[in-house]
Amino acid sequence: MPAYKFMEKIVDMGDFIGVRGEVFKTHKGELTIFVSEFKFLSKAVRPLPEKFHGLQDQEELYRKRYLDLTMNPETYKRFLLKSKLYQVMREFYTKE
């Protein structure tokens, strides 16, 4: 059985795995890893929220930020934008 088929059966969304391999860009320009080995680090104890319903309670979104970042692409994009903004501001203010 190929390794990727094994991973499809064993690894669920939310599990943590470690990978080792070569980083490259696809023909569409996306960064990816050609995995030569992987290691199972941790199993998710609780399943992630349903894909289509997600987290509805606003207070729960604030408490479980990691789930919001995992399940909501808009939140993730906003997180990346803020992170880049903070990085640029730090570089500006520490520049001599």
What characteristics describe this protein?
45% helix, 96 residues, flat, alpha+beta
3D structure, described in words:
With 96 residues, this protein is of the alpha+beta class. It has two domains: 1-47, no CATH class; 49-96. Helix content is 45%, strand content 23%. It contains four helices and two strands. The chain has helices at 3-10, 58-63, 65-71, 73-94, and strands at 16-25, 31-42. Strands 1-2 form a two-stranded antiparallel ribbon. The protein is flat.
Number of helices: 4
Structural class of the secondary elements? Answer: alpha+beta
Number of domains: 2
Indicate the multimeric state. single chain
Return Rg in Å: 18 Å
Instruction: Estimate the global geometry from the Cα principal axes.
Output: flat
Largest beta-sheet details: 2 strands, antiparallel
Helicity, in percent?
A: 40-55%
Mean pLDDT: 83
Give start-end ranges of low-pLDDT stretches: none
Report the sheet-strand fraction.
15-25%
